[in-house]
Design goal:
mainly alpha, 17 helices, disordered N terminus
Length: about 425
Amino acid sequence: MKSSEPGRGWLLRLVIAFSFTQGAVSMARPAVSYRALALGADARAIGVIAGVYALLPLFAAVPLGRRTDHGRCAPLLPIGVALIATGCALSGTAGSLPAMAAWSGVMGLGHLSFVIGAQSIVARQSAPDEQDRNFGHFTIGASLGQLIGPIAAGLVVSEHDGAMGRTSATALFVSAALTAFSLTSLWRIERRRAGTAGAPGKEAPARKVSVRGILTTRGVASGMFISLAVLSATDILTAYLPVVGEQRGISPAVVGVLLSLRAAATVACRLAITPMIRLMGRTVLMAVSCLGAALLCAGIALPVPAWALGVLLAGLGFCLGVGQPLSMTTVVQAAPEGARSTALALRLTGNRLGQVAAPASAGVLAGLAGTAAPFVMLGGLLLISAAIAVRPLRGRPPADPGDGRSAPEKRRTEESPASRGTGASRGTGRPPG
């Protein structure tokens, strides 16, 4: 029986809750940048504040993943909501750049807690052939939040008559309230059912897989790097497009529309992700999307008008929409049994490392070569990701695009004693036709 029976109402509620929390964070991140600008921050200080957002989660991700592997996932969701709301509200009252950086870190810790719990629920309650689809639908929640949040921030924040400090604080208070509203959807999210891929922690093997053992499992490290590159691109776009807009004479409202246009294209991509996998296969799709994102991201560095910037961001949003859900599936299916939540937490740790290093590097580059330089850096990072994504195609046949399992999982099935003894793999001993 498929894991989606008797229904996927839990997934819908999770997507709704994720939309509110991600919408709040996406509204708060540019509002933090605008408030920091009002307090006298330069491009380098913006990069440091954006990096601190990811600093606290670096130390918390693996312990949270370990706990989730052998316990329930749902308690992390309200904890994450409380931390995000606190970070948003207190960022709005902060009167100095160090205080803003500190509360930005609390916001990042809350976001990490929510995402680890939510991703672990999706992995635990989805069969292998449903994971691409369910992770794609789950990340639509993030895209919807990224669609609404920047527009809301742009509408609330005003730079007329020196009002940016006051209006950016208002945007942060609204973000806190929006986060709290997500609690209305966090009921009956997690179910304990036998026969589901990624069963509850008490049914998982008792042995504790080391971090090194997880990272050296084929497919985990490459999935982590692709996820890091894609998230770094999204993060720097959110943090630095307000700075680019200010330098090019683009108003906060238009910047909000541009960021939301990027998010809308990502939603469209994730709605179409299942047919695209059937058409191209997971490996080719990831490689092509990273290559396209690299070219488009570098194009943002050009001094183009606002309408052309919108075209570039729409294409970039579509390309970036592939990396996150497919890297989740890659990591979950490649990870050892009993360590899937820890593997997802390590993936998020890699993301946060990127969120610390990329904005800091972007701040240095922006200070030395202007605000266009970080986008050239991101283009190079995504180009490396495209090369990593295409590596599985070298020296072996591509995976069946219609099969939701990863290559390591297929090999485990085909090489199992039961398959050799009964010819049960795919029903025959022959390769799939």
